[in-house]
Write a structure and sequence with these properties.
2 domains, four-stranded antiparallel sheet
Length: about 240
């Protein structure tokens, strides 16, 4: 089995012995978190003693995820790919769950969206930051709209026909839509639950874990726009 290490996340966020609000990540052999993985691959997704935890907080209706038994409401929706629905996610990281101090009900760290407002991040992360776990692929994950502005693809672009999703993108959640089909109980785009699930799909810019501090992760899609100013000191040229 081969694993792709997310050095950006592991080295900069969860260094051995670092104390965070979410966990004291002290991994054995591979670090903690260790690698990108797909929870939908089951027990074979990670090495022994690691669990493949989704880093995708998408929830029904574009709401905040109703974690830990919180009732669904105008603010909170059922998590589609995290916590109890972790097994249908195609995006995640190998984590030693035994080291998580304040886990979700499935033992995984709290998945969050770095593009949320500061208030929403505070609501879900409890006063700490939301750390993006993977960079987008600027060649495959970015879309230039009719206004000429580059941005990251979202699931809404599936419904408008701007993308066929699938393997044309690099870091997209649920490329075959099997997770959404499982969640909705069908694969009918006319079904509101399935269509909403597609609408909530994303690429790497909308996935992360809650943690005290985060490394700067560049918006590589925004950098494709003329005159874009890098937000990270070590941002790539171009």
């Amino acid at each position: 089995m081969s694993f792709v290490r997310s050095a950006l996340f592991h080295a900069a966020i969860f260094a051995i012995g670092a104390v965070t609000a979410v966990a004291c990540f002290q991994g054995e052999d591979f670090g903690n978190p260790a690698f990108r993985c797909a929870p939908s691959d089951g027990a074979d997704a990670c090495p022994d003693s690691y669990t493949c935890c989704s880093d995708d907080p998408a929830a029904q209706g574009g709401k905040l995820p109703a974690y830990r038994g919180v009732a669904t409401s105008a603010t909170f929706g059922t998590p589609i790919f995290s916590e109890n629905n972790n097994p249908i996610s195609s995006q995640g990281m190998c984590v030693q769950a035994s080291a998580i101090a304040n886990p979700l009900t499935n033992g995984c760290p709290v998945a969050c969206n770095p593009t949320w407002s500061a208030a929403d991040i505070d609501t879900v992360c409890g006063g700490v930051s939301c750390c993006q776990t993977e960079e987008v692929d600027p060649e495959k994950d970015c879309f230039q709209g009719g206004d000429g502005v580059w941005r990251a693809f979202t699931g809404a672009d599936i419904l408008t026909g701007a993308t066929g999703w699938g393997n044309k993108l690099a870091t997209n959640q649920d490329p075959s839509a099997m997770g959404c089909a499982t969640f909705a109980g069908n694969a009918d785009v006319n079904d509101p639950t399935f269509a909403d699930c597609l609408n909530q799909l994303s690429v790497a810019n909308q996935r992360g874990f809650c943690n005290d501090t985060c490394p700067c992760v560049e918006d590589l899609c925004a950098l494709k726009n003329p005159g874009a100013v890098p937000k990270c000191s070590a941002a790539p040229a171009g």
